[in-house]
Amino acid sequence: MTGTVLHLVMGPDEHGVVRCARELASATASPVISDLEQLPLDSAIHVHFTDRLFGRTAEAAADAFVAFAQRHRAPITVTMHDVPQASDGHAFEARKKCYRRVADCAAAVIVSSMHERLLLDEVLDGGDDVRVIPLPIGRAEPRTEDRVAPRQVVGVLGFVYPGKGHEEVLDAMTSLDTDVDFLSIGSASPGHESMIDELGRAAEQLGRSFTSTGFVPDAELNEILRSIAIPVAFHRHVSASGSINSWIAAGRRPLVPRGRYVEEMETNSPGALWIHENSVEGLASAMAEALRHPDRTWQNRDVVTYPTLEQAAVLYRALFDEQCSPTADQLPDGRWVVPGNRWDLAEPVDRDPRVSVVIPYFRQQRQLEFVLTALTLQSYPASLLQVIVADDGSPEAPDVDGFRTALDITVVRQDDLGFRAAAVRNLGASVADGEILCFLDADTVPEPGYIAESVRLTGAVPDALAVGRRRHADLTGWSAEDVAGWFGGEFSGPPELSEPGWLRDGYFRSRNLLDADRRSYRYIISAVMSCSRRLFSEIGGFDETFVGYGGEDWEFAHRAYDAGAVLAHLPRAVAWHDGPEWAERTGGDRERKNLEALMLSSRITDPAARTHGLVYAVPEIVVVVECAGHSSASLLATVGSVLRERDCAVWLDGSDAASLREQWGDVDPRVHLGRPGDTGRSHMVVHVRGLVLFGEHALRRMLATGADHMTVDVGGSGVVECRSSRSNARAARWADELGRDRLDAAEGLFGHMHRTAVEFGISTGEHQPNLSW
């Protein structure tokens, strides 16, 4: 999508939104279209929207936008400007409805501040993908060496309209000498032309000069902004301000009232603003101070503003890339490596791999005969089947002699040391020679198409971890001959029992796990599970420390997901369990369930499994903090902010890490020196560079985006980058065969999200923070 997205820009060139839109279009190399009727219907579109540019009323603006969106056949993303807020008065409800209708048409919505994001949350119905990309700030021009005193003028930049603060600025100037003039830089907003004369008369009554420049071309603007004594931006209801940014770009440090948006700007660009109390009296005091200390109205040379136009363009281009239609990569042998969990993108593969069916068994001779009979009736070629019965220490070995003429069958056994389903499945897999492993419990009878349906996906997508549909029936009194008659169509099947609702609902909500996330491991049950033998081996098989019923399949699936497995439910791969489910995850004996939970919580990094405040050997998040540029105090501040998130471990990377930490005097076992080793069992690895402070729940908010690779800009000097274990593992597995670099392969398979720190409550710290109390 990058390079082909079109920017729809409506309105006059002098309008601030139009100017911003054209700058961003140029920076992202995006063609600009200004006519709704000329939009190519199949091209991705980005729109800079404010209702005032799309219609005479909010309703008309929404009608115009929705009409073109309904015709359009490609993704539409929207930057919303002038977000509705209660200060709109009687127009608020109409504008809310307008913006809600526009958002409903968009694949993603961008706003220019977190303040606007919070305002928009009150407008939208929820569920919209809303991003924050701040308005770009031009690089501040240094102050010239000629110390010519600026004119004794207070300047306010931007359109004149109610709420811009002109009246309040005039009131605040009563404490200044009357030889200090008032200059309004810009023209009146349409419909408010009379305000210019009104301000002039009010100033005259106060014995003060008031002048309006009207529209100022860009080529002349900086000279005016640099010529006055006091730069002021006293917006009453500001949510994102191009005029404040223009002051900064001109090298000025404007006087602004404290508020949510201003504090957000201070976080992004520390020191760029002169912040005063949000009142006329506060402004008056600040203006008097500015006259006494004019140097404070100029930007210091060490101030780093964020974002520049190019930094904003990177964020926009990354969002456009996210909207691209993902594609699968074909391996040399014809199989597919798919992006994310998109197994639906793999085309059918004309191949019939050898399949090893592993059947864990314990004293189930009659039921085993049902399963083996069903395997002789499979539509998949018998010559490509290997059947392995893995006996978990039964007093007598399973009798399979009656099936040897029809099946390639092997029996392996282990001692009876308790219920060891994990170990016995591994034992069966260890003698498998098939490319595909199909695990079937000895009391779960597969329909004739079961193997073929399982192989259809696992044979085409080598990363697939597939689960079939386990239905339930009462086979009491049945024989193997009855099973053969049932599947042969000679008579009807046995009485059907209900399926577990938690499984059925989970598959439905996730579209058969196509929309799987990191908690979908709960829907993988080993009774009807299949995967490639290579994937099983790389994952390390089942965890043999599980003894007793339950948990080993959840742990295996969780580990598989972090190892890059693609989860899928195959509703047409049906196998019938003899009897009701023994222990649904939502019920059963509490003591047994607690034992299972205790086993799982130390092994899987699902936050739902870890709610008791303990520290585990395998943390959910590994954070690597680069020590370069840090003092001991700033490093402590960064690490301390990270450890607000309980389930994480921190590694201090750098030649001076030990000496910096030594000054802390701590013995915290969560903090380590150097670089971490194998992080594959953790969910995410986060690299932190610069003086970065994480707010409460900041890491958790980052994980909530679902991104597998994300870069977060922290002002102009810090960066936080996170990568999931699953993206690293899948890229490592296939990069060579795809002929790609690992990082490039990971980005191609999982994307690369760019976000801003303010969205997550991340900020820039100080080199010497105040640690005293």
TrEMBL record:
Enzyme class (EC, first level): transferase
Superkingdom of the source species: Bacteria
All copies of domain Galactosyltransferase C-terminal, residue ranges: 519-566
Keywords: Glycosyltransferase, Transferase
Pfam families on file: Glyco_transf_7C, Glycos_transf_2
Name listed for the protein in its UniProt record: Glycosyltransferase
Family note: Belongs to the glycosyltransferase 2 family.
PANTHER family: GALACTOFURANOSYLTRANSFERASE GLFT2 (PTHR43179:SF12), RHAMNOSYLTRANSFERASE WBBL (PTHR43179)
GO molecular function, one term: glycosyltransferase activity
Recorded metabolic or biological pathway in which this protein acts: Cell wall biogenesis; cell wall polysaccharide biosynthesis
Domain Glycosyltransferase 2-like: 356-476
E.C. numbers: 2.4.-.-
